[in-house]
């Protein structure tokens, strides 16, 4: 993940929220492990995440007050924190207020800020995604493998709201994905800070080319400079150092935004 981290431009004093579908948790923990080499990094959620395995973190807290008492005991590493573990084995959310109190203790905060119930795509209800107001980067992630997928409740979370992104389509097309990314109620709804698109699951040359085409279509219609960078990648591959189907498209710098 070192190259991805460098292209992302992640610095200290960053709060990074991750929204969308198709790799949020993988992205958060892969990036967190990379950034925690010589830094204090917190990985958490404003929704719910599966309890990570023991080899994925240095310290785990389900009591924020305990974390506040003990934070001075370590100088770097990856801390995972959340509310109590629920009956599904998931860490529950931390409030914006508690997250704000933790900011001074860490170099970087990574937040899984959306839920999709393991489905390929989703629509967003009024309270979703849950992106804290002090977020400095919002990463929105979608899987390119959903192209051609049937549009129904089996494959789409909050299917009753998905019609907003359709124009008569019965399966997922490039146009559907473009609308999903650029709509004010789409992938970057409620987002703050720099907005970064990750098109995941580009596992072979054909999928990479499809993702690149989608990226170019989105760029052409993103006249308001909503998204600063597009990443085309396979998270599974780059987590093992394989960047054979990887592209980072830098579209503008922060001071160029209209």
UniProtKB/TrEMBL annotation:
Lineage top rank: taxon: Bacteria
* InterPro entries cross-referenced by the UniProt entry: YqeC (IPR017587)
Q: Name one Pfam family in it.
A: YqeC
- The name on file for this protein is Selenium-dependent hydroxylase accessory protein YqeC
């Amino acid at each position: 993940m070192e190259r991805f981290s460098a292209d992302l431009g992640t610095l200290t004093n960053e709060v990074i929220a991750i929204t969308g579908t198709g790799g949020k948790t993988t992205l958060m923990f892969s990036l967190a492990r990379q950034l925690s080499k010589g830094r204090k990094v917190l990985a958490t959620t404003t929704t719910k995440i599966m309890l990570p395995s023991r080899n994925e973190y240095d310290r785990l807290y389900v009591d924020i007050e305990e974390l506040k008492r003990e934070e001075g005991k370590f100088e770097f590493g990856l801390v995972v924190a959340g509310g109590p573990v629920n009956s599904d084995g998931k860490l529950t959310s931390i409030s914006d207020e508690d997250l704000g109190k933790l900011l001074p203790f860490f170099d970087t905060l990574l937040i899984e800020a959306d839920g999709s119930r393991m489905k390929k795509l989703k629509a967003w209800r009024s309270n979703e995604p849950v992106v804290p107001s002090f977020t400095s980067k919002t990463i929105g992630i979608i899987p390119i493998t959903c192209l051609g997928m049937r549009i129904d409740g089996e494959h789409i979370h909050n299917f009753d709201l998905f019609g907003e992104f359709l124009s008569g389509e019965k399966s997922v097309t490039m146009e559907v994905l473009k609308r999903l990314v650029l709509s004010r109620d789409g992938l970057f709804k409620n987002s703050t800070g720099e907005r970064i698109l990750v098109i995941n699951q580009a596992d072979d040359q054909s999928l990479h080319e499809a993702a690149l085409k989608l990226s170019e279509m989105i760029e052409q219609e993103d006249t308001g400079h909503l998204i600063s960078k597009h990443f085309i990648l396979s998270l599974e591959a780059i987590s093992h150092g394989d960047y054979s189907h990887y592209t980072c498209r830098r579209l503008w710098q922060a001071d160029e935004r209209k």
